[in-house]
Design a protein that fits this description.
Blueprint: H1 3-15, H2 19-26, H3 30-38, H4 45-54, H5 67-73, H6 76-90, H7 96-104, H8 107-115, E1 121-127, E2 133-140, E3 155-158, E4 174-179, E5 188-193, E6 196-204, E7 209-215, E8 219-225, E9 230-239
Parallel strand pairs: 1-3
Antiparallel strand pairs: 1-2, 3-4, 4-9, 5-6, 5-9, 6-7, 7-8
Helix pairs in contact: 1-4, 1-6, 2-3
Length: 243
């Protein structure tokens, strides 16, 4: 299934347009359009943009979601119910004045549709060792959560060293962190220390102590009392570059 085809179908359906009406606007055949939406014909990115623009969808919105972001990230089929609810909630009450404005400014409707994606997508920041934002990743929101946590509380942390190379985490890898203020046995966790934030594998030793493990060329562990530790979060996802 083509995600750009899904996006075209959803926008066409939202506006109540037929294949023929859209095809006429875009200068393509309605058969071609139906095949694109069905995923049986591959469509080039620039052609998809022209069709979406002809229907009034803007290239980028106030939420900074580009068409590339959407096509690469969103499962549009499963997002339909959430998008429908979000769009309905954002629709203004129709008046003669507002209807006239919509007709004269086709980008308005597209912006409303794309802005609704803020309910199913989130720009998750990427932080380095000194917690400076160095980028972002676009992640889907499921039932109001990302990995079971509030979307505003999750972030990616870039591994600053090879302290966990033996656990398959190398310098420059990105780990998705969700809030956790207590030790999670067997998890890789982000901790706040006097020297800064560090990644360690955590093993619960007893009710009062935990083992902090690192594994570069050699395996090392350190026994610490819980009252000496400040846990920032638990790492739930790893993104690494293949070299």
């Amino acid at each position: 299934m083509s995600r750009l085809g899904d996006l075209i179908r959803l926008e066409r359906t939202r506006q109540g347009l037929t294949h023929k009406q859209v095809a006429r606007k875009c200068g393509v055949s309605d058969k071609y359009l139906m095949e694109v939406e069905a995923g049986t014909r591959i469509i080039a990115d620039d052609q998809a943009r022209r069709i979406l623009k002809a229907m009034g969808m803007t290239q980028q919105t106030e939420s900074d979601f580009t068409l590339d972001d959407i096509a690469a990230t969103v499962d549009l089929q499963s997002a339909v119910p959430q998008l429908s609810k979000a769009v309905e909630a954002k629709k203004p009450v129709k008046t003669e004045k507002s209807e006239a404005k919509t007709e004269s400014d086709p980008g308005v409707a597209g912006s409303i549709w794309l802005d609704a994606l803020s309910g199913v997508l989130k720009h998750v920041p990427v932080y380095n060792a000194v917690m400076k934002e160095v980028g972002h990743r676009l992640l889907p929101i499921t039932n109001g959560k990302i990995e079971g946590a509030s979307p505003d509380k999750v972030f990616y942390f870039m591994a600053p060293d090879n302290d966990l190379r033996g656990f398959r985490v190398q310098r420059g890898d990105l780990l998705l962190v969700v809030p956790a203020q207590a030790a999670v046995d067997g998890a890789i966790m982000l901790l706040q220390t006097p020297q800064g934030r560090v990644l360690r594998k955590v093993k619960r030793y007893n009710d009062y102590q935990a083992m902090l493990q690192k594994y570069d060329d050699t395996f090392e562990s350190e026994l610490k009392n819980y009252n000496e530790l400040t846990f920032v979060g638990r790492c739930v996802r790893l993104e690494a570059e293949l070299t």
